[in-house]
Amino acid sequence: MAAAYTLLVLLLAALVAGFMLLVMGAIHFDFSNSEIPPGVNQPVKLRIMHVILISRAVVGKILENIGICSQVSFVRYMQGRKTRGVDPKLFIKDLCFEQVPVRIYQPKAPSARQRRGVVFFHGGGWVFGSLETHEKLCRSIARESESVVVSVGYRLAPEHKYPAAHEDCLNATIHFMKNTEHYGVDPANVIVCGDSAGGNLAAAVSQALAGRSDLPKLRAQVLIYPGLQALDFNLPSYQQNRGVPLLFRERAAFYVLQYLNGNACNLEEVLEGSHIPIDIKLNYKKWVSPDNIPEKFKVRGYKPHVLLDCTTEVYETVKRFCEPNLCPLLAEDAVVQQVPESFILTCEYDVLRDDGLLYKKRLEDNGVRVTWYHLEDGFHGILNSFSSDCLAFSSGKRGLDNIM
């Protein structure tokens, strides 16, 4: 009996050791393929954040391989393990707008006039993120700006493909705009806001509402390191920051494919640029081109990319990349001219930096007022690090202060 017990203990120890070796091996592989640029402040913190994210992904993959749960489900579970708690300055309530889950943050202090309304769309590559992951950020926006914040829990990919997330965000925004009086919000002072994939959704919602006469005009759009196009993954920022945490070049393409098709087929073609026919690329070159990126953003290195054609079969799977609801940078001038005043935040060490720069130029060229704030030492996801006291970055707080 004792021998059997000892054998069981040794077997469990071996399994645990093997599990840890697999995790450490995967972390080492991802770690060795990443880089922390010298311009990033507090690089150790960024490394720690990166290791945490890799560890979750690796453990999730192992659990998926042994049939316990999917990797996506595990990562979402780990992200959402937060207790909300009471906020002394805010009323917080979960509701549904047009069957879309939302969380509303209302300042408790009385106001002599109607408040600003902020409709917030969380980031996470359309695959991850939730009301919980951006809870602290939304609380901060509501408190510091004395605004009513509506955080939207839109449907996620790969279970719900494009345009599910866009439709949820649009429907929730319209519902709020039609019912602002219930929340003490000025109908002429409603802003859409989002980070990363949420910035994409905010831009698309803003365009969808442009020119509508049955609703008040949006006061502004706030786009925090948004992803706005999927035609060119070889822009200068994609080349310079391809291995910079927290968003690698390959993962950016992976996420948008998950959103579009629910899978990552044709990832290699998307990365090399052989997913869109040359004639269509040339048609959009006036808007999506390294020529429109200021030269100072190319000094860290940029190699012009050769245009590649694609097969009909590949294009058929990704042709909706040319739809503005998915890639707002491709909207026609007549639509762009009608979007509201805009705030765009970009980070130097972010693969999505140039998407923001290109959209800034498009807006300005079409007479839209733009306030642009660039974090010279910033990286993708830096504002959401604000949700962790020990892993917060001073530059992330600086960016948030400029938004509010």
TrEMBL record:
Superkingdom of source: Eukaryota
Active site: S196, D350, H380
GO MF terms, alphabetically ordered: carboxylic ester hydrolase activity
Pfam families xref list: Abhydrolase_3 (PF07859)
Alpha/beta hydrolase fold-3 domain segment(s): 118-263, 314-383
InterPro entries in UniProt: AB_hydrolase_3, AB_hydrolase_fold, Arylacetamide_deacetylase, GDXG_lipolytic_enzyme, Lipase_GDXG_HIS_AS
GO CC, alphabetical: membrane
Keywords in alphabetical order: Hydrolase
Coiled-coil stretches: none
Entry annotated with the keyword Metal-binding: no
Cleaved signal peptide residues: none
PANTHER family: AB HYDROLASE SUPERFAMILY PROTEIN C4A8.06C, ALPHA_BETA HYDROLASE FOLD-3 DOMAIN-CONTAINING PROTEIN
Family in the record: Belongs to the 'GDXG' lipolytic enzyme family.
Protein name according to UniProt: ADCL4 protein
Source organism of this protein record: Rhynochetos jubatus (kagu)
Gene behind the chain: Aadacl4_0
